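Archive transcription. Copying these from loose printouts into the bound notebook so they stop getting lost. Printout 1 of 2:
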Amino acid sequence: MTPDDLQSALARTAPTADPEAAAAATRRAAEQAAGAGAADVAYAIEPSPLGDLLVAVTPRGLVSLHYEDDRLDALLDRLAERLSPRVVQAPGRLDGVRRELDEYFAGERRRFETPLDWRLTHGFTRRVLQTTARIPYGDAATYREVASGAGSERAVRAAGNALGANPMPIVVPCHRVLRTGGGLGGYTGGVERKRFLLELEGALAD
């Protein structure tokens, strides 16, 4: 029997790999790598009433939450470029924030307690988002109020741009920022998602 014949025989008699088992093994390896400090960013895809969410954490806390909308590769590339190339899918590392998101969408949670990693934000943008993070559940603020809270009342357009660049929507509730007079204004995830979140929180009149 030639070496080629031997390889052919082994290929015919080898058990067929179980795709589900292989995927589970890959997930376990990623979890172990993350737990051993071999990953700087761990992420998971979290289902929600608004579609799948890409949720990412670092040892400091939640760093990114995005509506996936078929942009998974681009979002992961952004995390790798701006934070670290050591990005691993490790859902176990995100159990806390995933549980809080489930409770929020079920109407059982009014305040997120997961720590936040603000490294994807800087300067005025960070101040706008930190001001936004303090808007209570069921309440709303205007773009001008948020700009004022960030230190520049006249920078309404810049505040809107900062909210549009929010790397952690829902948890940092940019949906609670409305136009003066009550108009919804814009929202990176789409106005219908903004409306859904405000209605969930009871912040919109019927």
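Printout 2 of 2:
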Amino acid sequence: MLFGGAVALLPIFARSILHVGATGLGVLRAAPAVGALLAAAAITRRPMGRHAGRLLLVVVFAFGASIVVFGLSRSYPLSLAALAVSGFVDLYSMNIRATTVALASPDRLRGRVNAVEMVFISASNQLGAFESGLAASLVGTIPAVVGGGAMTMGIALGWARLFPALAGVDRLETLTPAVAGSTIE
């Protein structure tokens, strides 16, 4: 969300780019939530199986790609679809990250680790909105959104190389707390 904070710029898109007015803005704001609801329904029907680490990186990449599509779109239906996809894949990402943190944290640290994670999640949304607004004021709205999506895609690709253990996580239910001095398995 740090670089993919396009939602903060939705009023500009609704008014000046897509020309859909206040009602259209409301529907644009709801689109990621609709995507997230669909993802929640999908996860409850078919829980994640293998290759959770790889799936995490794929959905982060897909989130960035959906933001790029949104930023380049001049079509209201395509913009809605791109935002819905962003919500869909973001829910998968959040599910994998939250489960990983809960299972990989030692019992005695789980509450503190979860608290720190929640602070970063909350802060990333607000910092992402600030970053998007600042970038839009410097380079323009569309380049800011497209650039943020591209940076998110680059981060997903980079993390696959920088953290191969993360990419190698298979089934979430097999995660165990890390022991000091060991690597995640």
